[in-house]
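User: Study the fold:
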Amino acid sequence: MRVKICGLRDAASIAAAAAAGARYAGFVFFEKSPRHLTLPEAAALAVGVPVGVAKVALTVDADDATLDALTQAVPLDMLQLHGHESPARVAAVRARYGLPVMKAVGLAARDDLAVLDRYLTVADQILVDAKPPRGGGLPGGNGLSFDWRLLEGRRWPLPWMLAGGLTPANVAQAVRLTGARQVDVSSGVERGPGVKDATLIADFIAAAG
């Protein structure tokens, strides 16, 4: 099981995630989020991420100028596109920056799976998340889950990651129902908005398997 701890904001949380066995460290670059980092903050944190833990930058409908500044300032291993990026935009970002791209797709009903399929030939990984509430300000990190049975028995030709409302208490069930081999958590290991808890991080990774 490969676990991504997203929305990391301090060195202690990064250390806790790495010590517990996280394989991805997620940094958020979205000003409306309580987990948002400035470029100098992220650059300072990134150099402290241990070897073997992939540094992932979450952006939302970012333009080239924004991504240029981000990739020049922060040493990254992957870009996570969490907005309304089209398949063509995903392909363009992947080509421009030479980094693996993970595209987030929100699910609420079976019809949403068709949207996911559009990205299978242009992304390196897919993040299957809960669709945000209508009119909500955040595309992810809302602590919402979806009906995991929508993914039961489904397989795709590229790596995918399960997200959306996961906690230490429910991640084992989510993995069992979906067959996920990668999971992503943010609010589910926090003691307050944007404030990670080392014990919850360790409990989550242990429960995920």
The radius of gyration is 16 Å. Helices lie at 11-20, 39-46, 64-73, 87-97, 113-117, 171-178, 198-208. The mean pLDDT is 94. The chain is about 30% helix and 20% strand.
